């Protein structure tokens, strides 16, 4: 998924990323204020910096076994649950969830 492909798309409410995607690039969904839910398939190996930054309505993300870069979900203040699918590749960078004050991980 390319850099800034849906950046600041105010009407985007939910996303199911296709299985053909292996990486979610910088700022791909940054600033999508209405984005409430995202389903990320197992094919995704990397979620890059600021990919979902400031998606203030985002409440639930299904996270695959992947590398999650710093600030990937920064400023997602409504995010309360990340449902991890555990595996060998999982890496969550420090500050990947900066500003996510209500975060709970399972």
From TrEMBL:
InterPro entries: LRR_5, LRR_dom_sf, Surface_bspA-like. Gene3D superfamilies: 3.40.50.12480, Ribonuclease Inhibitor. It comes from Effrenium voratum. This is Uncharacterized protein. It holds the Pfam family LRR_5.
């Amino acid at each position: 998924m390319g850099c800034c492909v849906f950046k600041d798309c105010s009407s985007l409410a939910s996303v199911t990323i296709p299985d053909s995607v292996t990486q979610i690039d910088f700022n791909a969904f940054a600033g999508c204020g209405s984005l409430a839910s995202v389903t990320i398939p197992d094919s995704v190996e990397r979620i890059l910096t600021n990919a979902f930054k400031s998606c203030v309505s985002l409440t639930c993300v299904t996270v695959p076994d992947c590398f999650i870069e710093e600030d990937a979900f920064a400023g997602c203040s409504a995010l309360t649950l990340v449902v991890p699918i555990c595996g060998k590749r999982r890496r969550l960078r420090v500050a990947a969830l900066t500003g996510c004050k209500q975060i709970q991980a399972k």
